[in-house]
Amino acid sequence: MPTFSTDSGADPEGRRPTTGLEGATALLVGANGRIGHAVAVALGAAGARLVLAARDGERLAALQAELDAAGVPARAVPTDVTDDDAVRALVELAAGEGMEVAVNNAGTTHRPAPLGALPVEDADRVLGVTLRGTLVAMHHELAHLPAGGRLVNVASTAGLAGAPGMAAYVAAKHGVVGLTRTAALDHADRGIRVNAVAPGSIESGGLATQPDDVRDRVGATAPLGRLGGAEEVAAAVVWLASPASSYTTGAVLTVDGGKGARGA
Q1: Which helix (H) or strand (E) holds 258?
Q2: What residues contact 54, with CB distance under 8 A and at least 6 apart?
Q3: What span, in angstroms and rounded, lies between the C-alpha atoms of 197 and 158?
Q4: Buried-most residue among 122, 124, 241, 255 (CB within 10 A)?
Q5: Is 223 exposed, middle or buried (0-12, 13-18, 19+ CB in 10 A)?
């Protein structure tokens, strides 16, 4: 298995603005997909060394190669978050590399259906990956993060309100929000900060494959009048992972174009 190179990718002339993440090791669980890819690129650009995990090893290897080409030290570890032993081994590996930051982005969804018609096996799959997978990852990460460590979960605005036809996904993301807030309280005495970002309508996943007119209609429902970009979610993750947010813990930062400002 490849190890880190000694090149941090930092500008040798010192012209890159400091972020407080230079040389820090960040574990990213769920590195595939548009948001995972954007988070990896943004953390790398901020100077972090990356341990990347996702189930699809081929896509993960391609991301590592992209980061390597950009001078970002990265190590790819194919991992299924429903495999408890694999998650434990992943976190122990990242801890051995000096993990200071952990980001949990693994998740999945289901076809819209009223709860009474939602196949229970679909609900089990979504809860197993999105909620239980995050819980198990956090369990190990919080045991290994040092004092002053940072943990960021990728939740969703579906974790803050209902969404017709999306019962299991909504339940899972509400659970991620609850885990975030409770872990922030449990670990504040160690100086570990635990926060979440809650993306709204982002041009990623199934929405990214919709026709232009559909994406335009969805984007128009936000006060800002457009869909969000994965890189905008990534910027929020990087801020929460950095010393710039040093007095922020237990927060859920919405990246939703203003939709949440309308309330219920």
Answers
A1: none
A2: 29, 30, 31, 32, 36, 60, 78, 79, 106
A3: 12
A4: 241
A5: exposed
Q: How far apart are CA 143 and CA 204, in angstroms?
A: 32
Q: In Å, what is the CA distance from 94 to each residue of 75, 88, 123, 158, 190?
A: 9, 10, 30, 30, 19
**Residues noted as catalytic:** 169
Tell me the CA distances in angstroms from 151 to 25, 101, 127, 131, 194, one per residue in order: 12, 6, 20, 16, 5
- What's the CA angle centered on 103, arms 148 and 45, to 5 degrees? 90
Bridge-based pairing state of the strands 99-104 and 74-78: unpaired
pLDDT digits (tens, 9 = 90+) for 149-197: 999 999 999 999 999 999 999 999 999 999 999 999 999 999 999 999 9
**pLDDT value at residue 264:** 56
What pTM value is reported for the model?
A: 0.91
